[in-house]
Design brief:
The complex is a heterodimer of chains A (278) and B (320).
Chain A: H1 2-25, H2 32-50, H3 54-77, H4 85-107, E1 121-123, E2 126-128, H5 130-152, H6 154-164, H7 166-171, H8 176-201, H9 209-223, H10 228-245, H11 254-268
Antiparallel strand pairs in A: 1-2
Chain B: H1 5-24, H2 27-53, H3 61-77, H4 82-104, H5 109-129, E1 139-140, H6 151-178, H7 181-191, H8 193-198, H9 203-229, E2 231-232, H10 234-237, H11 240-253, H12 258-277, H13 284-299, H14 303-311, H15 315-318
Antiparallel strand pairs in B: 1-2
Helix pairs in contact in B: 1-6, 2-6, 2-9, 2-11, 2-12, 3-4, 3-9, 4-9, 6-9, 7-9, 11-12, 11-13, 11-14
Classes of the chains: A mainly alpha (278), B mainly alpha (320).
């Protein structure tokens, strides 16, 4: 149960990037999942290459993710901004296919895992594994960081202004191309970071990004768009829910439940559970 | 309808597909043509959603896979004859999508697209856990199940002809919907859903009905194909890449046109044939498909037929 809460923080982080891109540019990035998977592989190769603490390695992964995001933005997304949403769905999906194809060619679809554990903390009858706690802490730090960036810096405010009304923001002298590039880069960087964190917890394959992407959608619609702390809270909620149902039903049924939740939330609460408060 | 050149083109293409392998008795040719026929049927039905209504259905393969499962279950476990099972599968899947569509098609645009990715995952999860459908191992057709059709050899030919017939019906359906009042309602939704609603198009009902119609024939094809193949498993039945390939075919040919779906499907299958014959490309073909999709979306969103229309405006009348 408590484990669910910790894992939920990682889900929340995975969803933040998606939510940011979706909220700011009204583009649903279907290459989000594969970027999570690339983050996992990034961590795996850096860790086995240099053997440094994986939490330190998150920094280069975030940097590389940002660069990837900027490149994807200029190759595939910039031309379709403002066109019907169908177009950007298809173009990010095309990117997704290309990257999955590259990933399977390079690393096949067999599972990998990062051989790293932290000593756990034992309180009473329960033991909390150290890597779960560390991953959750890292996720919370990044969520708070993003929230601060969006609400208390000049550039963050520009991002939020563009999300609210791109034309008006442009008239106020905000370069929307710059804002969109940075937000897309940030979104992908967050995906890669959450992938890196998830890699320290579970074994993974090239295709594992898909499961996190589905969870990210659920979290994003739960939280509403563009709210980092809301995404974190919704992620924790999802993690807790998973923790709570696993004793009763087989784990392979979980995608079905998540999908049911996704549709139910979309139909019942179109602006997210925290839609009004935010 | 009978005065339209497109109608006669569809009829002649279908006849060629049916007669050519029968006359030569060439099994290789038959196998090549059946792949193209399936692609045409899937792309034409997908066109009703993407091309006509402007709603992207990433999970279009769900109908195909579910149809396969239901069809195989009906033929092997309950012993229905093949055609009855195929049509039964089509009806069951259509009803399912109708009910489901009424629930989720209140979602607009992108949200619907996301929901269709979710439904693919969810149905696959269901099929890999549902024990009457053999869970992860899937279902098999025993040799005795082919007996009513006169043994496996004849059964394969019958399945082939049935698939070709469904392909012909799919193309006719596309043409018919395009020229109907219902089709005009769909186009209105695609262009501006709010305006369409104001003008009295009941968008939710229209979308749900077209979603359901576009699931019927793919389900029939699925039932026939998986019967012919003799087995079905969750990975093969609910393969996201097949869904996406159908989208690529449609965009390649030109969405919203009857001919575009057909040409795109035939061309794409040829291309894929080349890529798959060399083993080093099997994974890489995803990269090429993705790259192709990206190029089409960014630089030629109207596809081949769109280009033809621009060069020869009169072609619009002939190739609908």
């Amino acid at each position: 149960m408590f484990d669910g809460l910790l894992i939920g923080c990682v889900y929340g982080l995975a969803a933040m990037g998606l939510s940011l891109v979706w909220g700011v540019m009204n583009v649903i990035n279907l290459a989000h999942g594969v970027m999570i998977a690339f983050g996992m592989f990034g961590l795996y190769f850096l860790f086995s290459g240099f053997g440094v603490n994986p939490y330190v390695l998150l920094l280069p992964i975030i940097g590389a993710g940002f660069v990837c995001g900027v490149v994807i933005y200029w190759v595939a997304v910039h031309r379709v901004i403002g066109r019907p949403i169908l177009t950007s769905l298809l173009s990010t999906f095309a990117v997704n296919m290309v990257m999955i194809g590259l990933g399977t060619t390079l690393w096949s679809t067999s599972p990998y895992y990062v051989d790293f554990t932290l000593a756990g903390i034992t309180i009473g009858r329960y033991t909390f594994t150290g890597d779960h706690i560390a991953a959750a802490t890292a996720a919370v730090i990044m969520a708070v960081g993003l929230q601060t960036f969006l609400y208390y810096t000049r550039f963050g405010k520009a991002i939020r202004a563009t999300a609210d009304n791109r034309d008006a923001a442009e008239l106020m002298g905000i370069s929307s191309a710059q804002v969109l590039t940075v937000s897309f880069g940030l979104g992908v960087a967050l995906a890669a970071a959450s992938g890196g964190l998830a890699a320290t917890l579970f074994p993974f394959t090239v295709l594992s990004g898909g499961a996190y992407q589905l969870k990210s959608f659920v979290v994003t619609v739960l939280a509403g768009l563009g709210k980092p702390l809301g995404a974190l809270a919704a992620g924790i909620l999802l993690g807790l829910l998973e923790g709570a149902v696993t004793p009763f039903i087989a784990i392979s049924w979980i995608p079905l439940i998540e999908f049911g939740l996704f549709v139910a939330v979309l139909v019942l609460f179109p602006s997210g559970l925290f839609g009004r408060a935010g | 309808m009978l005065a339209r050149p497109s109608f006669w083109m569809i009829v002649s293409v279908t006849l060629v597909f049916a007669v050519l392998p029968l006359a030569t008795g060439d099994a290789n040719l038959r196998e090549n043509l059946i792949i193209i026929a399936v692609a045409i049927a899937l792309a034409s039905n997908l066109n009703l959603m993407i091309g006509y209504t402007g709603y992207v259905n990433f999970g279009n393969v769900v109908a195909y896979g579910l149809g396969g499962y239901i069809g195989l279950y009906l033929t092997t476990v309950t012993g229905w004859p093949l055609l009855a099972a195929a049509i039964g599968a089509g009806i069951a899947v259509s009803l399912f999508t109708l009910v489901f569509g009424l629930a989720i098609l209140r979602l607009r645009g992108a949200y619907f697209g996301l929901a269709t990715i979710g439904i693919l995952e969810a149905v696959r999860t269901f099929a890999s856990n549902f024990s009457p459908w053999g869970s992860a191992a899937g279902l098999y057709v025993s040799m005795s199940a082919y007996q009513p059709l006169g043994g496996p050899m004849r059964a394969v030919w019958i399945a082939y002809l049935a698939v070709v017939a469904v392909m012909g019906i799919s193309m006719l359906l596309s043409l018919f919907v395009k020229r109907s009042k219902f089709g005009l309602g769909l186009f209105a939704i695609r262009e501006d859903e709010d305006a369409a609603v104001v003008l009295g198009v009941n968008a939710t009902v229209y979308k749900s009905v077209v979603y359901s119609i576009s699931a019927f024939l793919p389900a029939v094809v699925g039932a026939l194909i998986f019967y012919k193949n003799g087995m079905i498993d969750p990975g093969g039945a609910f393969d996201l890449s097949l869904s996406i390939e159908a989208i690529v075919m449609l965009l390649l040919g030109g969405r919203g046109t009857v001919t575009g779906a057909v040409i795109g499907a035939a061309l794409y299958e040829q291309l894929r044939g080349y890529l798959l014959t060399s083993p080093s490309f099997t994974n890489f073909h995803l990269v090429i498909t993705g790259g192709l999709l990206l190029i089409i979306i960014l630089f030629a969103p109207e596809g081949l037929i769109g280009g033809l229309y621009r060069l020869l405006p009169r072609a619009r009348r002939v190739f609908e």
